[in-house]
Amino acid sequence: MLHSNRIWSIAEAESPEQLAYQLTRLIFYRCNGFRLGEYVFVNDATGADSAQEYGVLKPDAGGYVQIESYTFSGSTPERALGFIRAVLAGEYDNECYDRIGADRLESPDLHGLCHYCG
Ligand SMILES: [Zn+2]
Questions:
Q1: From ligand 1's centre to the CA of 88, what distance in Å?
Q2: Which structural domain, as residue segments, surrounds residue 40?
Q3: Is residue 92 part of a domain?
Q4: How many domains does the chain contain in total?
Q5: How many angstroms is it from 16 CA to the middle of ligand 1?
Q6: What is the pLDDT along the chain (118 residues), one digit of tens a residue?
């Protein structure tokens, strides 16, 4: 379940391959998220040193619906890429774990520095 008051700074992902590598090999701030096509992957980790778990969001009327979550830090780039491709293929489109308002996702400029990344 997504953190109830976290605001994410969303960057554009270059490609499924690049995103799979980044999320499995690098540690991001808890307010970082990445957009790939219409899907958004947001960091849902509980702590700075805890597992890099990401919620997968899809636009829905007036906001976003969480369709899946995935622990990238326990995966390999190859397995993560398989998951990302399944997301892009729409395999999780009918899932709904949570809903958030569109105002929870910000551009990097709007986001600035919060207490997670400042
Ligand atoms: Zn931040």
A1: 26
A2: 8-107
A3: yes
A4: 1
A5: 23
A6: 688 789 999 999 999 999 999 999 999 999 999 999 999 999 999 887 788 999 999 999 889 999 999 999 989 999 999 999 999 999 999 999 999 999 999 999 999 999 999 8
Residue 27: partners with Cβ closer than 8 Å, 6 or more residues away: 52, 73
In a domain, 90, yes or no: yes
Alpha carbon of 2 to ligand 1 centroid (Å)? 16
For 52-66, b/e burial (b = at least 16 CB within 10 A) is bbbbbbbeeeeebbb
Q: If you measure from the C-alpha of residue 75 to the centroid of ligand 1, how many angstroms do you get, rounded to a whole number? A: 25
Q: Is residue 87 part of a domain?
A: yes
Read off the DSSP letter of residue 73.
Answer: G
Residue 113 lies in a domain: no
Residue 74, token pair as written in the block: 């326990």
User: What is the Å distance from ligand 1's center to 91 Cα?
Assistant: 30
- The answer to whether the pTM exceeds 0.85 is yes
**Residue 87 Rama label (left phi>0; alpha psi -120 to 50; beta):** alpha
